[in-house]
Amino acid sequence: MPLGREDPYDAYAPTPYKRYEPTSYDPYEPTPDGPPAGGGYKRSDRRPRLRSRFRRVLRVLVLLVLLGVLGGASTYVWADSRLDSDVDLSALPDRPAPGKGTNYLIVGSDSRDGLSEQQSKDLHTGSSIGSEGRRTDSMMVLHTGAHGATLTSLPRDSWVTLPAYVDPNTGIHHKREKNKLNAAFSLGGSELLVRTVESNTGLRIDHYTEIGFAGFVGIVDAVGGVRMCVDRRIVDEKSGLDLTKGCHTLEGRDALAFVRQRHQEKEGDLGRSRNQRKFLAALATKAASRDVLFSPSAVFGTADAGLGTLIVDKSTGLPQLTHLFKAMRTVSAGNGKQLNVPVATTGLATSKGSAIVWDKEKSARLFAELRADLPVTVHG
To answer: Distance between the two ends of the chain, CA-based, in angstroms?
Structure first.
């Protein structure tokens, strides 16, 4: 038996078993440079070392989790702080009763915030609006509920009734009057637009989102462009669009021109609304693609571009925007509905120019189905 090793089971052992203490002759003794010379530890020595190693690994894992949580929290705070919660829906008068499901009003405005004079020229956005107020070329209601998502375009030239309002610039009171839908946005901003949509549809708008030119262009560029296909050549001098027949990856400038042009569409504003829904759905799909999600620069670039010019109501935060984005992905995947509000007349001559008249019976049925969160049976 090696020196210093006494067998506790030897009846002839002169002394009781003692705790083993390594000697310079023991092959299990650790060397100054690391592992034991004999290639391993005795069982009594391995357990404390394994426990110590486990604790170290556990501490590292906890640290990584904490870093991830803190990183996510800081990112959340950063993103949430970028939101411009400028609209208070709770302060609006004469609102419809809440329905079932959730309704988002999505607005594309001609805000040039974030654009230089040269960029405005390159993008064919025109000059600043000045006394005419803000304008919008796209308004959509996204409804989500028990039967999926429905995206309904409200043409800007829709002939509707504007509720009585007070001019935010002059303080002058205005009575109810007929006008185009986009005039509500120009005359009374986001609040009057929401009131006009609610009073003409009977839908209660739960959340409001608005994005300007710079944000739209920035998002499209951040995701690397969006692929769209057209069945003919489109040349539109006003928007600056020049596309050949076939499929194209539209970068920010051409994407903005594509969703704004209407003079080359047979159905005018209705055709433009259809292009806007098609593009928005494709953009949501691209933003959720692996190429974007696995690229930190693309993810943060997209978030920064969108949040930088996004205006929302006070009840809309990142959770609501996430829900909206997921619903848009559902629509783009073909699991939802996309339609224009049903129309009875186009090209109606009015004191405000050519306008679109909704089909009274079909549009009423559409909004009733959305309000009750029933399957949509109307086609537009």
So the answer is: 95
